[in-house]
Design brief:
two-stranded antiparallel sheet; elongated; alpha+beta; about 140 residues
């Protein structure tokens, strides 16, 4: 099982600790933050885009195609009604070269098989516990 810890830094800024890495998240200035990092929602969309890029790169390499210069861009929209959620994500995969005939659909299938994509389609169960601080006598 993988584990992450999120530590409050100040105001709306947090640090996400995972495997010795630190990811800073915050809110933009206009939302009251200090813009010290992406928002949690941006990080969510970024994880999908990064996963898509990983699977796309693996597909290109497996098929002897160049992967250097591969890009994936993402845009998203929030739901206009509750609950607060991302309602649409658009991904665009930009291979570094025009793909040979028949490879575009294979690349699409590879990207659609990414772990984050699958986790959104078949949402994981989320457990939540609220732990009270330990009182020191």
């Amino acid at each position: 099982m993988s584990k992450m810890t999120v530590i409050h830094r100040e105001n709306d800024a947090f640090a996400v600790l995972t495997r010795g890495h630190v990811i800073h998240v915050d809110q933009p200035y206009f939302a009251g933050g200090t813009d010290a990092g992406p928002t949690p929602v941006e990080l969510f969309v970024a994880s999908l885009a990064a996963c898509a890029a990983h699977y796309a790169r693996r597909y290109l390499v497996r098929h002897g195609l160049p992967a250097e210069g591969l890009e994936v861009t993402a845009d998203f929209a929030m739901s206009a009604s509750g609950p607060a959620r991302v309602s649409r994500i658009g991904l665009r995969v930009h291979p570094p070269i025009p793909l040979p005939a028949g490879k575009t659909e294979g690349l699409r299938r590879a990207v659609e098989a990414c772990t984050v994509h699958n986790s959104i389609l078949d949402a994981p169960r989320i457990g939540l516990e609220i732990e009270s601080p330990v009182k020191v006598a």
